[in-house]
Design a protein that fits this description.
Layout lengths: L4 E2 L5 E4 L5 E3 H23 L9 H25 L1 H6 L14 H19 L3 H26 L13 E2 L9 H8 L3 H10 L6 H23 L6 H17 L15 H23 L11
Parallel strand pairs: 1-4
Antiparallel strand pairs: 2-3
Helix pairs in contact: 1-2, 1-5, 2-4, 4-5, 5-8, 5-9, 6-7, 8-9, 9-10
Amino acid sequence: MLAAYLHDLSPVALQLGEKLAIRWYGVAYVLSFLLGWALYRWLSRRGWADLPEEKVGDFITFTALFGVIVGGRLGYVLFYGLENYLRNPLEIFQLQKGGMASHGGILGIVIFTWFYARRQKISWTNLGDNLCVVAPIGLFLVRCANFINGELWGRVTNVSWAMQFPRELEAKQPELVAAFYAGVPAAREQLAEILPLRHPSQLYEAFFEGVVLFVILWWMRTRWRLPNGVLTGAFFLFYAVFRIGCEQFREPDSEMFGPLTKGQFLSLFMILIGAAFVAWGLRTRTYPRRMPAAA
């Protein structure tokens, strides 16, 4: 049998100096915003989005800042580390230490797009529909960054593609982990012997929450004549189902809610929100102002 892959990828994409570096996590966010901007412009140009093409850049920029970053950070603080941040409130602003919650980012985007739509006097649900279509690109890239960072690893398993993640021992044996990343052969051998085999759950989530979700929503957007709000509801529903399923293979990173992880528990509310958006869209029956006639 082949030896299991011992995760040894560096979170640093480019070292620019002794203390300055570009990390894959940051690269993932920048690429997410750029690709989201390009695809949203394409949808606007084709008539699927009420937002004019020339305003897409500002919208994506402000959504990234106020929705994704602020919402994702506050979501992490509230859902995963409230007691710690109440004791050390200044750590809330230390983004370089990590800590973003996808559920918080999604909630932040919902709130921000509501205010933005009112200000621009356009349909909130149409604005959200097209944003939801491009959002899985960001989910895919960030999950890939999670894998490169060796974080949010999966549960112990014996499947043939299982991997070992040294960073799970950083708190208990920091010197051993540091020696491994410094290239010490003996450290690699020792970690290979003591680390459990785990699911690469980050890649599972990247595939289902990113690739599969994007294909579904893009197909629905460009092939079907759907009322505003239905795509937003579909995003919430499919994301919640995929998240609940993938969490079965992910090591819980916080307290459980009975048999459910916190991610699964929060996803149950997303199912209700998604159903509400679908019901609202089918009830109101409003459509993109410039929808292609062939739709």
